[in-house]
Amino acid sequence: MTEETTMPTRRSARQLKSKGEANAATSSTRAAAPPPAPPTGSAPAGKRRSKTEAVVALLQRPEGATMAELVEASGWLPHTTRAATTGLKMKGKVITKGKRGDEASYFIASAAA
Q1: Segment 41-91, tens digit of pLDDT
Q2: I need a surface site. Which of 28, 72, 86, 97 has the fewest CB within 10 A?
Q3: Secondary structure element (H or E) that encloses residue 59, with its range
């Protein structure tokens, strides 16, 4: 007489779902994702200020902005920042270049000028 031992068999996901066990097994192992953090800054609630808007705000100041200030504000590389200013020109903004000390300063020319 031989003893037969029965080993538990693995069940596929399809077999689990047919018994309603799959959802319970997977939902108990999933962690709920935390809600996203609210945006910070001076933008209105629910709306985040874009990098392009930050660049435009710096360019609209009376003293304008240096390329280093624009790069720091946007987080872009210098060549990307220059391309963004070119894009603003293509959208109709008049960007002029002046001097502030030893550095070049860029600003959006006002309509009254």
Answers
A1: 455 566 788 999 999 999 999 999 999 999 999 999 999 999 999 999 999
A2: 28
A3: helix 51-59
Distance CA 77, CA 37 (A): 26
In a domain, 7, yes or no: no
Indicate which CATH number applies to the domain containing 61: 1.10.10.10
What distance in Å separates the CA atoms of residue 73 and residue 33, rounded to the nearest whole number?
30
- Tell me, what amino acid is at 108? I
Q: Is the pTM of this model over 0.70?
A: no
Contact 84, 95 (CB under 8 A): no
Handedness of CA 74, 80, 84, 86 (dihedral sign): positive
